[in-house]
Each structure stands twice: as structure tokens, then as C-alpha cells.
Design a protein that fits this description.
This protein is α/β, with parallel strands linked by helices. The protein has eight helices and eleven strands. It has two domains: 118 residues, Rossmann fold (3-Layer(aba) Sandwich), CATH 3.40.50; 91 residues, Orthogonal Bundle (Arc Repressor Mutant, subunit A). The protein has a five-stranded parallel beta sheet, sandwiched between helices. A four-stranded antiparallel beta sheet has the order 6-7-8-9, with helices on one face.
Length: 221
């Protein structure tokens, strides 16, 4: 899944990026409010981690403009510890959750996972698709109770499809959320990835709807 991290402290931003990337997410960093507003307003993200004290445009303004323009991705706001007024303002502006600084990265990850699950209607930390079980906490996938060894890209793809299991996901959307900005986004690479997943999880786990995209856990029509 593709996440945007907006933080002007370069050390904190890189620490957050590293932790999220090691947990299976495709992460992009920006360090000022204007760039954050443009990225969030024109591109697709599963979640945004947003600091409020940003140069060029503060986080509250960025958030208000996103919501005013109909952008509904979950936003986790980072605030100064003890600044209750800032937290209230962030929630009123459209934040889905907040996390005071300094924080433990385990809590950051837990909140990110929960917000993404809730945004697509999943309450539990595990997702079942037929015989396939995806544990979003450990990034582990099992088939009929047997653990399967997946690459990070394979996990991102099957996890994204599982989170959006009730709709056909276009190839362009999958490319964004599997590879982020760090890939040439070639359709044949996506097809190769899906072929490998079918070999590991079963030929019918991912259905191709020609001209529309991909669907998980449904038999071909």
C-alpha cells in the first residue's frame, strides 16, 4: 500500500519511512506543506502521516484543503505532546487519528494498520480470502494454515487486493500501491507478479477481468 509521510524534520521523516517500509508499505516523503497539499490532492494514497508544524503551509491548512476538495484518505496527524488544542483543531479539520510526539514506532504502526483497515471496512487484523489468511500485523500469508514465503512486492499486492476485496482494482491503481514512485510501472511486471502469486496461493486466488483490472477471492465470470 502507498503511504505519504509529511514531516519537515528530516531525521524523524527518514525514521518513519524506514519503519513503514520495513512493514510492507510503499512510502513517499515530502517535507513542506505546499508539496504535501499537491501530492495529496492529485495522487492516490492509502493513508497520510501528517505533521502539523510544516514550512510553506501548515498541516491544518493542508488538511482542510484536502477535505474541502473531497479527498477522503485516512490522515494520521502528528502533534506536540500536551498540545490538546492542536489535537482538537486537527480532528475538527478532518484528521482520523492523532499521535503525540515523541511516540513509539510500534504504536505508529498499529494506528496506521487500524486506520487503513477501517477505511475499507475491515475491523480485524487478519483478512481471510477463501483458504488464504493475511495477518497484517506480522505481514504473513498462509494457505490452508501453511505459511507462504512472499516477497515484499507480492505481499503488497495480495494485501492491497484483500483490503479491497469487494471491487475490481485497476492495474494502474495496483502499480501505484505496489511500487509507489520508485518503479517504471510496467504492466508486464505486474502480470509477472500476479503469475508468481497464483503459483504460490492457487490459480484462482486472483481473477483477471480483462479491460477492468483484478479481483481477489472470486471465481472467473
Amino acid at each position: 500500500m502507498r503511504l505519504l509521510v509529511v514531516e519537515d524534520d528530516l531525521r524523524i521523516a527518514e525514521d518513519i519511512r524506514s519503519v513503514l517500509a520495513s512493514s510492507g508499505y510503499a512510502v513517499e516523503l515530502v517535507h513542506d506543506g505546499e508539496t504535501a497539499w499537491f501530492k495529496g490532492d492529485t495522487e492516490d494514497y492509502s493513508l497520510v502521516v501528517l505533521d502539523l508544524g510544516l514550512p510553506r503551509m501548515n498541516g491544518i491548512t493542508v488538511l482542510k484543503q484536502w477535505r474541502g476538495n473531497g479527498r477522503h484518505m485516512p490522515v494520521l496527524v502528528l502533534t506536540a505532546r500536551g498540545s490538546w488544542a492542536e489535537r482538537v483543531e486537527g480532528i475538527d479539520a478532518g484528521a482520523d487519528d492523532y499521535l503525540p510526539k515523541p511516540f513509539q514506532f510500534e504504536e505508529l504502526l498499529a494506528r496506521v494498520r487500524a486506520l487503513i483497515r477501517r477505511s475499507v471496512g475491515h475491523g480485524a487484523a487478519t483478512i481471510e480470502v477463501g483458504p488464504v489468511l493475511i495477518d497484517t500485523r506480522s505481514m504473513r500469508v498462509s494457505l490452508g494454515g501453511m505459511p507462504q514465503s512472499l516477497t515484499p512486492f507480492e505481499y503488497r499486492l495480495v494485501s492491497y487486493l484483500a483490503h479491497h476485496r469487494d471491487r475490481v482494482v485497476p492495474a494502474s491503481e495496483l502499480l501505484d500501491h505496489v511500487y509507489g514512485d520508485d518503479f517504471s510501472r510496467e504492466a508486464n511486471a505486474l502480470e509477472a507478479l500476479i503469475t508468481r502469486l497464483r503459483k504460490k496461493l492457487g490459480p484462482s486466488v486472483i481473477t483477471t477481468r480483462r479491460g477492468f483490472g483484478y479481483l481477489i477471492g472470486h471465481e472467473s465470470a
